Structure formats: C-alpha cells, structure tokens
Sequence to fold (414 residues):
Amino acid sequence: MSENGHETGPLSQVCPHDICTGCAACANACAHDAIAMSEDELGYIHPQIATDLCTGCRLCQTVCPALHPVELHEPRCVFATACKDAEERQTSSSGGAATAAGRYILEQGGIVYGCAQQNFQNIRHIRVEQTEELAALKGSKYVQSHIGPILRDIRKELRNGKEVLFVGTPCQVAGLRRFLRKDNEHLTTIDLICHGVPPQRMLREDVTSQAQRLRSPLKDLKVAFRWKAQYGIQYGIQFGEALNGNLRRVCLPHDPYITAFWTGLSFRENCHQCPYARTARTGDLTIGDFWGLGREAPTQFKIREGVSLVLVNTAKGQTLWDKMSSNMQSEERTLNEAVRGNTNLRHPSQRPPTKDSFMDTYRKTGDLAIAVKTAIPTRERLKMHLMEGIKRQRILVTFLKTGRRIIHTLKHHE
Fold:
C-alpha cells in the first residue's frame, strides 16, 4: 500500500468478474503484455494477469469501460433502411446497412474492422481493406467475438491518418474508445443492438456434436445462426454447402446452442446488467433489425426480405449516414417505434430464473444439451415449438389465399 492509500504492486484482477465484458481493452493497453484473454471454466473469456510481468501501473484499469463508463449519445434520427441491390440485401442478415457503411469507408481508402468467422472454431474481429473482403463480415454471429490485438492496430492506423470504421457490440465499442482515451476525427464506430453473448466453447461443442450426428465434415466448417426463410427469419445452426446438397439445418428449439442463446441461459453474467441496453448509445451509428416496423405507421418495405434499423447518434454518424444512404432505400421513422420493437433498446436481457441450474449442470457434465434440457421447463420448449409452427403456418395461409385468388380470377374470365 502506498502512502496515499492506493494499492501498489502487481494486480490480481482488472475489474470484478461479474461486470467484465471481455472487451480486451486492458490486454491491448498493457505495454508489458502481462494480460491474456483466457477462457474460464465455462468458456467465458476474462483477462488473466501474469503477476511476474505486471508492474502495477494500473493502465489496464484506467482503460476499463466497466470501471470508467464512456459517454453515451441519444439518437438524433431513426431510419428503416435496406440495400437497393437485391443480392446484397438477400445475403445480409437484415437490410445490409453495415455492409453499405463498410463499402463507403473502403471506397475512401479507409479500413474496416468487424467480426468474421474463419470457421466455427475461430470467430474474431479482423481487418478489411478490400471491398471483396466485406463478405466475411456479413451475417449475425450469436457468440462473443475475440478482439485480439485489433485495438492496437486501429490506434496505429489512426495515427497514420487513415479513416477507420469499427463495428462491434456496444461494450466492444466502449472498450475501443477507452483504449484510445480520446476521440479521433478519423474513427467512426457502429454499435450493434445486442441481446447478449455466449462463449465460443459452447458453440464449438454444439457444432461438433451436431456435425458428427449428421455426418458432416468438420474441416473448415462455417455455420450460420439465422437465415431468411419464406415465412421470415429462421434461427438455428446451419452448416454445409447448399450447392453440393450437404446443407444441414438444426432449428430452434432442436439445437441446444441456439436455444440457450434464445432464452439467455448462455449469456455472460454482465449481459444481464448491460449499461448499453438503452436508447443512449456508444457508437456513432447503431444498427440492428427493425423489429415491429409498420405497426406504428405504414411502411414501403417488404419485412420478410430484411430491414435494418439505423440510429444516427452523433455528427460523425450523420456524416457517414449521409454518404452511405445513397445506395439505400430508406424512410425516417420514430424512436418510439424502434424502441417498441427492440427490447434491448429498453433494458438488458433478463437473467433466466433457471440460469444457476444451467451453469451448475454444464459445469458438472460439460454437456450443453443436458444443461439446456435441465434448465428449460417442458412448457417453455412447447412454446418454442408452437412459435416455429406459427411461422410456417403464416406462409401456408399466404399460399392458400394466393391460390384462391388465382382460382377466382380464372373462373371470372371463363
């Protein structure tokens, strides 16, 4: 203990375990590389300090957004939007807004950083410099992305005067901002509307199990967590190649991983007390799905084709939106409509009452399927089955109504 009452010597932890987001700002900031982001017994990543390398400088705590919250910004305006290019929209999770933003930055000679899936065992943030590389950033990844040394790379490029776009969860954006310690005119950030993040270990175990059961090869295997079906967004684990007939899908609620995600059982503990699950945001822009679009006022969009929600939060966000929106079909909406359709713009995902049971079972057995079955009552599983059945019923009803109209038209012309 020093004379002024502050601790001295090597640290044992950066911040309390239950509020750590795994943003890796601390690991990137440590000049002595004394901090490594490591999986705990359940697979969640946390900073581990090598006490023999730690000098006790406390820089890691200085940049920690859990200890020093960043300034948040209320949205200036709200848009529903989708790419005008049909193929671009179809290959995007929703309306393709993040891709449009990235494309503009790259066309200006800038660099984009976002989450990519090298394979199902390696999901991390990468650096993108060419427009053809943007495809790697497409698609929702319902898992925590590993940041690695990316924040150091961003700092280097900003010092060189490069335009940089960073896309990530709100806590990852906050980690980058705390790491840099001051705003930079060349940096624009996009935070995603996030429900919560499970650990990659659970994903690895689930996909390995499903692939073995379905006799699909694991080599270089990539997965999708959601896809656009005729009856709307379908959630599950999809892997394989559609072109050679090996495409496999295990849908909610049949897949343990996506079921644990959907119910919040597998989220990090801090996700249930997330300070960013509100309308005030960390990023210059906020992007998500525009759930509930059209309930407040009519819309021109075909919802099933995917529509992005964009919140413009800062002057830099406004500048990027003005530049990228020329390639977008857009309509201005109200913040109230956006909030009504997105729970995580109101509050964090609630902690399930059976989460402790889930964690205890998973810790003891190491079997995700058993842990999920133990924690989710039969009634809840039946609700999930019913929900998916209703989705399919909607497209069947639409098909029958169309058939009736065609028959009526033919009879009218006889």
User: Anything to note?
Assistant: The chain has 13 helices and 13 strands. The longest strand covers residues 111-119. Residues 378-412 form the longest helix (35 residues).
